Amino acid sequence: MVGVTIYRSPSDFPDKYVARAWRTTARRVFFYARPLAVVDTLDEARAAVALRHAGLRNVGREAEDDPVIVESYR
Q: Assuming Cys at both sites, which of 17, 26, 41, 49 could form a disulfide with 45, CB separation 3.0 to 4.6 Å?
């Protein structure tokens, strides 16, 4: 399965929104080395997800997620 998580102001990109793609197998979660997008607004991050992974659905965030996580897509 492929997914994307949007972060706000992660330590490697302060004051930016970052979309990072990942995929899961039966045993592991793999994060792609390069971010899908590094942008100034949440709308721009969402647009990048829609452009690159049109079939994914916004599933929000979990209560136990790191505070920098805005939302995830699966």
A: 17
